[in-house]
User: Fold this.
Amino acid sequence: MGDLRIEIPIIQGGMGVRVSTASLVSAVSNEGAFGVIAAVGLAEDESAQKYDYPKRSRESLTDSIKETRRMTKNPFGVNIMCALTNYDDLVDTAQKESVDAIISGAGLPLKLPSLIKNNKTKLIPIVSSARAAFIICSTWKRRYKRLPDAIVVEGPLAGGHLGYSMKELEDTKNVFLDKILEEVLLIVRAFESDKQKIPVIAAGGIFDGKDIARVILLGASAVQMATRFVCTHECDVSPKYKEAYLSAKKEDIVVIKSPVGLPGRVIRNDFVKKISEGGRVDFGCVYKCLSTCDPKKVNYCIAKALVSASRGEMDKGFAMCGSNAYRIKEIISVKQLIAELMSETRDFLNK
Assistant:
């Protein structure tokens, strides 16, 4: 990514709400990989009567960046969802704090370069198709005379919100990471020059060193992983949130409709069963955090659901996860996880 270098080819995916915060992010970066703060949901406080969501979001993101910087001297980034109503504000906050990279998905970040005033912060869009990669590269080049510093290609097995339709998620024969990765690589190569290369980062269903080796051999420069980092000692979510991962069976991992306007992969529980059957969870919208959400039409508030889950109140929310979450069987340190992943990767590449 230009002059930004990491020792370990792993980007820790940004996980909101309050899943990837300073403790986890700094631990990942301290191991030579790339930690990522999730900007969404850092400031939720449903107890507030007069709640200034934009102001508290700015303050909370600033505090999180500064706390992470106190805990690591290595590079780290911030993930900011395009669907947020205060997207511009959060991008401005992140670049004022000179974060090393802004990673942006849940929509096409077509205007992102116009919001950046420094030359340090790298811009990394997340795409789910070669078409999206082409639109971003061509638009940025035409409007702003610049290209992405890297691109994350997220396949349909990813956790959290997914850039696919429900139909595409069911089409496992034609919609899968390896195929999309190869198509995006072709698009990216056409925009590259001797002066600028665009690393492509594979994401979605990457679980072990075998997966990392496979996509690297296909041409990826690195991988983005999120699910594996939840069950680490350094991840700040409630032990009950982690227990949802540890006790999950394969059939417990389902895709639901989210107020974000995209499908979301979660671990099924009674709350998920209720909302999936059309049950309504009454809420008053104090955040107005999503440009794609109409509080009058949706049957639950995803911000409140995810805040509750992060606190361990699983009867009021759910854990988001990748498709392989059920394979996690223990809580380990970030150091141990990264060491195991790199050992497995080297073994498979050597074969």
About this structure: The chain has a mean pLDDT of 93. The chain has two domains: 10-237+327-350, 239-310. Residues 53-71 form the longest helix (19 residues). Residues 239-310 form one domain.
